[in-house]
Amino acid sequence: MKYYIETYGCQMNVADTELIICILNDAGYKYVQDIDAADILLFNTCSVREHAEQRVLGRISNERHRKKSKPELKIVLLGCMAQRIGERLIREDLGIDYAVGVDQYKALPRLLEQNQGCLLDFDTNENYQHLLPVHQGEHCAFVTIMRGCNNYCSYCIVPYVRGRERSRPYEDILQDLQSAVKRNMKDVTLLGQNVNSYHWKDLSFPALLKRLQEDVPELYRLRFVTSHPKDLSDDLVQVMGDGGKLCEHIHLPMQSGSNASLIRMNRSYTYEQYLNRVKALRAASKDIAITTDLIAGFPGETQEHFEATLSAMREIEFDYAFCFKYSEREGTAAAKYQDQLPEELRLSRLQTMIELQREITLNKFRAQIGKEVEVYVESFSKKSMRQVSGKTRDFKIAVLDGDRSQIGTLVRAKVIAATAGTLICE
Ligand code: SAH
Ligand code: SF4
Ligand code: F3S
Known about the structure:
Layout: E1 2-7, H1 11-26, E2 30-31, E3 40-45, H2 50-63, H3 66-69, E4 74-78, H4 79-91, E5 98-100, H5 108-112, E6 117-119, E7 140-144, E8 146-147, H6 158-162, E9 166-167, H7 170-182, E10 187-191, E11 199-200, E12 203-204, H8 205-215, E13 221-225, H9 234-242, E14 249-251, H10 259-264, H11 271-284, E15 289-296, H12 303-316, E16 320-325, H13 343-366, E17 372-380, E18 387-392, E19 397-401, E20 410-418, E21 422-425
Parallel strand pairs: 1-2, 1-3, 3-4, 4-5, 5-6, 7-10, 10-13, 14-15, 15-16, 19-21
Antiparallel strand pairs: 8-9, 11-12, 17-18, 17-20, 18-19, 20-21
The structure holds S-adenosyl-L-homocysteine (SAH), iron/sulfur cluster and FE3-S4 cluster (F3S).
């Protein structure tokens, strides 16, 4: 039997897809990239915002016609949306045959032997021990170090669909990294909803970062996402300052610059505490790039609260910010708040945010002109076969003149121009 899989949502889902490929391949199924050739279509889904769910449902409704000419074709819903509403969706006759939640992937081959069904139980102990995900990247790999989240930020569905926090054993992480590096993926990003709370036996997150750098000498670069600002310890700041393989970039979601909103988001830090962490990071690592996530139009956000976020953006000058329009998620605390904002206001604030960040990003990228950077060359550039493209240590896309021989290598280059997204180097 051949299967085809599409992935939505965050990098955790990308990594889960690689795990699912391992599980299905071990059970004798064959992974194909051509949807026409497949007997099983899998969709690994995201529930973080309404839009993410609508997109997948649209995709499934576009593909279910295939069942007319191929009646034995099966459609499987995996991941966060399956966990949240999979059971209901199967009943609704959308063409979905199976729904499998995030802790049940090992049972997927067994389920496929039945005609239809759901597997949605949480299993707090499940961290897919001894399984080696089949990484699909060429030069970069994502390696899961923990699953679940205990934080319950009031807007967020993740704790409800991913279950309780648990850490992956060191030996599994090490083996995963070694196998990625052996296959030439030398830029590795460690994944977790809140990597700072990684804990396996006596190993803390900062200690994990040190140990992996020592134990995998062939690795070029090490990164991680995501860090919750409330748990960003001085130890981590220090390890970041040590440099080495650990790159000068941190993704540190701020969500809002207003303390009133932060309290109602249940983020457990004030803007001042956030700023203090930013300053500590910049003191330890002078050129560290800081990126963030921001939410526009959270319930009860006044014009004044919103302006506090804009002024925080100006004060901190993030290298990049992922800006999101607040989306009510059924069952979360914020969805019950009585002061939801009208859609138009959420949208107009989102646009204001995006425009401001574009200016800041452009300035940040232009400030790199004249500097020497290290580029890990990953591919030819989209525009020309005489140019190659890759990333700097601080997670900026760079293009430079080059040829095939440079792909997969580290190149020193000088930045000569910049747009709000690309460094042009020579
Ligand atoms: N664990 C990560 C983020 C997971 S979700 C963290 O704690 O930072 C990624 C981002 O989606 C969040 O940082 C937040 O900015 C955004 N997000 C989550 N729920 C949302 C919602 N209901 N509406 C809009 N944006 C949301
Ligand atoms: Fe969601 Fe907060 Fe957990 Fe991140 S830390 S996944 S935003 S609940
Ligand atoms: Fe990720 Fe979306 Fe799930 S952001 S954890 S795939 S809800």
